[in-house]
Design a protein that fits this description.
Helices cover 32% and strands 33% of the residues. It has 399 residues and is an alpha+beta fold. The protein has 4 domains: 3-54; 67-78 and 317-389, conserved putative lor/sdh protein from methanococcus maripaludis s2 fold (Beta Barrel), CATH 2.40.420; 83-92 and 236-314, Elongation Factor Tu (Ef-tu), domain 3 (Beta Barrel); 97-206, Orthogonal Bundle (Helix Hairpins). This is Efflux RND transporter periplasmic adaptor subunit.
């Protein structure tokens, strides 16, 4: 028989009722000990260890704060650029029409896309009637000159006879008047001939200036008059322009001479020009005005076409932030900054121009702040965070 099994425990010697009472007493003792230990720990925490516990709680709270990436943007000087669209046109659009009385067009000497010199004949009009009138007027001049010569000869003879007393002084005066009248008729006839020749010359439609032919609206055989409208349109000197449509604020930021880059629609070609005129008025309906950008001639620049333009409007100094750092609500644009206590603060800002590096902040930041870069939508004002400074942010990474 095993010795261990032969020894009975004390509990086995007790009756069941006494065993339950003993177990309850033991549990009470254990509970009392636990309560006493808890009371001692609470007293120590309250009286002796409150400073240490506060520090521990603060450290624990700080350890639980979310980590946010912040950036100190600084301030940069950036070139301000204004984007716009507009229509290509001739800088000086010269309409050419009928100057004289008109008639039937015999020949047209130029076509669209031709270069012409000042005074060059563009088209000629039939002039058979005018030619006959010139011939008749030339005959009138010859007859008037013959009369003048006869009157002059008679006057010369009279002057020789008056000294001998054969002709009176009155006769000499009459012959002098006759000679002067004949001379005047010659002058009138010559003036009329010049007028006829000038009218005939106006039947040639000539280029008033040198330049580039944009339109041709006449064909041989066509009858034209002064009411026929524009027969040719020219770009004086071939100079072109872009008529850029801009708002009032944008126009106010521009000045004559500002450089611009023009890109016609449908092409990747870029053309460099300058603003040569800013409209003095604003359209009352669209609230826009026109800035005229002068351009050199190029076959790729077609008047009437559409183009975009980037105009350099000086430089500004501002903080630049990526798009991810800027929030928006009904009160406008804002960012979250982290103060010296690592608490989040809202800062209202005004955005400016968009650059390759980000968006310029024209108002609200001096560049020294620690601005929350990402996840601003998950933060609340006065929230404690753990800031992590970003050295640099690429524009692509911020999107």
């Amino acid at each position: 028989m095993n010795f261990e099994t032969s020894i009975a425990s004390d509990n086995d010697l007790l009756e069941p009722r006494d065993a339950d009472r003993t177990k309850r007493n033991r549990n009470r003792i254990i509970l009392a000990v636990v309560i006493a230990i808890a009371a001692i720990a609470a007293a120590y925490f309250f009286f002796g260890g409150s400073g240490a516990s506060d520090g521990a709680a603060g450290a624990d709270k700080q350890s639980q704060a979310q980590t946010v990436t912040v950036v100190a943007p600084g301030r940069e000087t950036i070139a301000r650029s204004i984007s716009a669209t507009g229509t290509l046109a001739a800088r000086r659009d010269i309409p050419v029409g009928v100057v004289g009385e008109g008639g039937q067009v015999l020949r047209v000497f130029v076509d669209e896309g031709d270069w012409v010199q000042q005074g060059q004949v563009l088209a000629s009009i039939e002039r058979s009637v005018q030619s006959q009138q010139i011939i008749g007027q030339e005959a009138q001049i010859n007859a008037a000159r013959a009369d003048l010569q006869l009157a002059q000869n008679e006057l010369d003879r009279a002057m020789q006879l008056v000294s001998r007393g054969f002709i009176s002084k009155a006769d000499v005066d009459r012959k002098t008047a006759t000679r002067d009248s004949a001379r005047a008729r010659v002058g009138i006839a010559e003036a009329q001939l010049k007028e006829l020749r000038a009218r005939t010359a106006r039947l040639d439609i000539r280029a008033p200036v040198g330049g580039y032919i944009l339109e041709r609206n006449v064909e041989p055989g066509q009858t034209v008059t002064q009411g026929s409208g524009t027969l040719f349109r020219m770009a004086q000197g071939g100079e072109l322009e872009l008529q850029a449509q801009l708002g009032e604020a944008e126009l106010a930021a521009l000045s004559v001479g500002a450089p611009a880059t023009v890109t016609p629609v449908g092409t990747d070609q870029q053309f460099t020009g300058t603003i040569w005129q800013i409209a003095p008025t604003i359209n009352a309906q669209s609230r826009q005005g026109i800035a005229r950008v002068s351009l050199p001639f190029s076959p790729a620049l077609k008047p009437g076409g559409f183009a975009s333009v980037q105009i350099k409007a000086g430089a500004v100094t501002a903080a630049i932030l990526p798009e991810s750092a800027i929030q928006n609500d009904r009160d406008g644009s804002f960012v979250y900054i982290v103060d010296k206590s690592n608490k989040v603060k809202r800062r209202n800002v005004k955005t400016g121009i968009v650059t390759q590096k980000g968006i310029a902040i024209s108002e609200g930041l001096d560049g020294t702040e620690r601005v929350v870069l990402f996840a601003g939508g998950f933060l609340n004002p006065d929230e404690t965070v753990t800031p992590k400074l970003a050295k640099s942010v690429a524009p692509e990474a911020a999107r």
